[in-house]
Every structure is written in C-alpha cells, then in structure tokens.
C-alpha cells in the first residue's frame, strides 16, 4: 500500500506532505462521508464510487478526506475534483458561518453544565460537532466574555509533563480505574491505546472492584475490533489481578507479523500508577472537562445535608445520575477520539487525531499490532466475564429479595435463588453483592453460625417430625418432617391445626 501511495504522489512533494496527515474515522468530520453512496461514471467502462460529503463535527481537511478515500475506498481523485464536488453540495469550511447568537446560546448552555470546565479549543470542537461553522478565535472571545473567571483559572493550571512514547497501535493498552466519584456510588473504569491515545472504553458503573466487570469491558472491545492488544498495562489493583490470569489462558492469540529488532512484551504488565502514565495523565483531562463538575455537584448535596454517604444515598445518586454521567462520558470519547492532538515541548509521540492514528498507522510509517481473535475464542471467554447489564439484573433481584424474607438468606441460598430464577451467576459474585448491599445482615449471620454434631447413618433411617407454632396465634399451624441423613424435607404443611394426630398421619401417609 505504501509503494502504491508513494508512486501515485511522486510528482508532488506537497501532496506527499499532506498524505502524512490522513484522517481515519470518516463517520465524523467537518466534511464527513454520508451513510449512502452516489454512483457517478467517468468514461465508458470505468465506474468510480464517489461518497457524498456533508457538514458534520470533527473538522477533517481536504487532504485528509482525499487520502482517506484513496486508502480505504480505492477512490483516486484530485484535490480540485474534491473541491468541485463540495462546491456543488454547497459545503464550505470558511463560508456560511453560523449566526453569532446561535453560537452564544450554545456556549451559554454548555457553561451551565460540565462545559464550564472546557477551554476554548474544546468548546470550539463542541461547536463544530453540534453542526455550527465558527472560527476558533470567535469561540475564544465569546468564552472570555461569558466566563472570565473560568478562563483565568484554566490559564493558571497549565502543567508540563514528561514525554511518553509507544511503538504501535494495539501494542499496549493502559487500563485503570477512576475513584473520584466513588464516594458517591459512581465507579469509572477506562482504557487508552498507548500509541494513538484513543479511548478504548470509558464506563461508569456501581463498582470497578470486580475483576469480572473489567474483563467484560475488555472482551467487548476485543469483540468490536476482532482482536486484542499485544500487552495490557495496569497497576496491582484487585480488579486487575484476575485479568492477568484471564490473559494467561489465551491460547492461539498470536500476532501475524513481528516487529523487527523489538522485544515482544508479555500479555500483561504490572506496575505502580506513575508507570501507567498514559491513562493516569488522561484522568486529569477527564477531571477538567467533566468529573470536577459532578464532584462539586455531589459535594454541594452533601453540604446541604441531602447526601450523607449512606448506601441509600448512593443508590439514589446511581438511579438519578448514572445514565446522565455515562452519556457525558460517551460524548467525551467521541470528542477526544476525533480531536487533533496539538504539539508540545519535547513531544515524541506522533501528532494527529486519535482515530486517525489508531486506524491508519501506515500514514505514520508503522503498522497495526492487533492480535486477531476468532469469534469462537471470544465466546469461550465471555462466560468468565460479567457485563454491566447482567450485574444490574442480578443486583435488582437481590434488592427485591432483601426487602422480604430474603434478608435472612446467606449468599449460598441467595445464589440458589438466582439460579432458580434463570440468572447465570457465580456464587462469589452473589457473595460480594450481598456483602455490599446488606453488610449488617451478613455480620449478624456470621455471628450466629452454630456447629452441631453430625447425625449420619443413611437415608430413610430416621425421619424427624415436629410442629412449628410461631404463626399459631394467628391461626396458621405448620407441621414438617425431615430425613435425618439427607436433610430432605419430606413434607411441610400449613393448616388450621397441627394438634390433630389424624392430620399429621395424613401428611405421613401421603
């Protein structure tokens, strides 16, 4: 592919330079490819597919669109042709600017929420993705006028960090959990590709300590891409220890080609948080653009005595805000993966849009290092994972049981009830959920465990019959029988009376 591109652009140094900037994900761009195609013929025999462009969000330039069409769709057109098509469709980057009142109203709306944490570059990107055509300088002036205090605070907090370099796309993913909202019941987990800085997942849930939940995020990403990274980098948290064993058992997940003069890393790397720099440094971006707003909101609820950190308060916050926060996280993924990473001092990583860096590494004289995984291998490992929607169903079922007589059940009995209701779940998961939801009940049951002497001779050697009178004052008389060896309940009947021996004999005869 590189030879083909080089030969095609050998006549022009300018186009070779533009070729290095190619964009990758067309689904979003100031000039973006629509879902439908328009066929147009040139000459008599050749048919060339021309994808119609429309105004959208990200801001790809002409050279990126042209190179993307050539690399991904085998459409070779000149920049002049592309300009002509865009002119016919009335699509311009520096004409037909959106009315300033619309831009002003949009910025006002953003400032009321977590957008109050955004700088003018990020706000300009949000305007573009909202379908507006506006200059960055216009957004900067409006933001300085509308939120001078926020602009001043952001200008003071500029940080300079040491450089980090990663070899290839999918060579190393960085996984970590974000606990700033955890005191309020919102646990976030994320993953970033080390080369492209593309966010692989960013999920909010009730817990990020269960390793099977994190493995669920991982296997969903693997299934979407059709493969896994060469290495996962993470710290020694409990949610990550199980994942190491999960990857140790991945048989047959081998890369097609090796990197010359490069040591192949193991499937998992442990280290301290400072060594997991790519994801750790990104959390500061999340805090500036989103989580600080929610921290302030929940802290205000706490100061106003509406939230005291109890399990009920956390459950209410999860019910009211979980979907909203996840929606904002999805927007952040979209905005971050399609924004252009700017240059910085001593920067060693390639510059561009994360989606471009991740999907078209050939433009940066490198290649993808995705380890291909078959659907069969993925399905065999899905049973070891726990997905958020599954946890929600199981959690709701346990909540329902705790409200009634299920509050007396230990985790083994609760696990049995889950299975009987068609919920496939491990006993250890039920134990953790029960301990999280009913800690007082778990403590009481652990204190009242009695050890009795064994009674074991054989089935049907002895049946034990007795009456239960706790409900008798209310007119309910219970009588039961248990096999001494197997502890099998032979009968358990409720009647108006358990004093009549003929009734008990009837149970026995049946």
Automatic annotation (TrEMBL):
Domain Integrase core stretches: 164-350, 458-504
Record Pfam families: rva_4 (PF24764)
Coiled coil: none
Positions of transmembrane segments: 21-38
Keyword RNA-binding attached: no
Keywords: Membrane, Transmembrane, Transmembrane helix
Cited PANTHER family: CLR5 DOMAIN-CONTAINING PROTEIN, EXPRESSED PROTEIN
Full protein name: Integrase core domain-containing protein
Organism: Phaedon cochleariae
């Amino acid at each position: 592919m590189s030879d083909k591109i080089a030969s095609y652009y050998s006549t022009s140094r300018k186009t070779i330079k533009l070729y290095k900037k190619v964009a990758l994900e067309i689904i979003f761009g100031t000039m973006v490819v629509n879902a439908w195609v328009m066929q147009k013929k040139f000459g008599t025999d050749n048919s060339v597919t021309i994808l119609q462009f429309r105004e959208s969000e990200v801001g790809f330039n002409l050279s990126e669109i042209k190179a993307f069409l050539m690399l991904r769709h085998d459409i070779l057109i000149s920049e002049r042709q592309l300009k002509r098509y865009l002119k016919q469709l009335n699509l311009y980057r520096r004409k037909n600017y959106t009315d300033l009142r619309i831009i002003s109203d949009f910025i006002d709306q953003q400032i009321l929420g977590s957008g109050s944490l955004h700088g003018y570059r990020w706000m300009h990107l949000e305007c573009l993705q909202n379908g507006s055509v506006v200059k960055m300088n216009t957004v900067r002036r409006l933001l300085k006028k509308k939120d001078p205090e926020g602009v001043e605070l952001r200008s003071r907090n500029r940080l300079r960090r040491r450089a980090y370099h990663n070899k290839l796309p999918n060579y190393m993913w960085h996984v970590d959990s974000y606990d700033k909202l955890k005191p309020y019941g919102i646990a976030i987990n994320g993953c970033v590709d080390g080369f492209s800085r593309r966010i692989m997942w960013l999920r909010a849930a009730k817990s990020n300590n269960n390793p099977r939940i994190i493995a669920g995020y991982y296997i969903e990403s693997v299934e979407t891409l059709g493969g896994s990274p060469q290495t996962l980098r993470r710290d020694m948290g409990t949610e990550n220890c199980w994942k190491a064993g999960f990857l140790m058992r991945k048989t047959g997940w081998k890369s097609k080609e090796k990197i010359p003069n490069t040591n192949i890393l193991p499937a998992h790397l442990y280290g301290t948080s400072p060594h997991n720099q790519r994801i750790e440094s990104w959390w500061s971006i999340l805090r500036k653009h989103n989580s600080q707003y929610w921290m302030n909101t929940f802290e205000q609820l706490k100061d106003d005595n509406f939230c005291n950190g109890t399990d009920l308060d956390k459950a209410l916050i999860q019910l009211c805000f979980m979907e909203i926060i996840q929606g904002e996280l999805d927007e952040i993924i979209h905005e971050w993966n399609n924004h252009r990473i700017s240059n910085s001092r001593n920067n060693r990583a390639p510059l561009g849009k994360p989606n471009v860096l991740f999907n078209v590494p050939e433009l940066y004289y490198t290649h993808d290092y995705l380890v291909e995984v078959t659907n069969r291998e993925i399905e065999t490992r899905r049973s070891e994972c726990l997905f958020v929607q599954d946890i929600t169903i199981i959690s709701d079922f346990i909540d329902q049981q705790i409200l009634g007589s299920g509050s007396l059940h230990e985790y083994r009995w609760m696990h049995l009830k889950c299975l009987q209701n068609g919920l496939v779940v491990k006993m250890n998961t039920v134990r953790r959920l029960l301990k999280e939801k009913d800690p007082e009940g778990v403590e009481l049951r652990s204190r009242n465990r009695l050890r009795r002497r064994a009674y074991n001779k054989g089935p049907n050697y002895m049946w034990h019959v007795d009456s239960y009178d706790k409900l008798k004052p209310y007119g309910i008389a219970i009588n039961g029988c248990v096999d001494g060896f197997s502890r099998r309940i032979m009968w358990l009947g409720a009647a108006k009376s358990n004093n009549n021996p003929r009734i008990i004999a009837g149970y026995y005869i049946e």
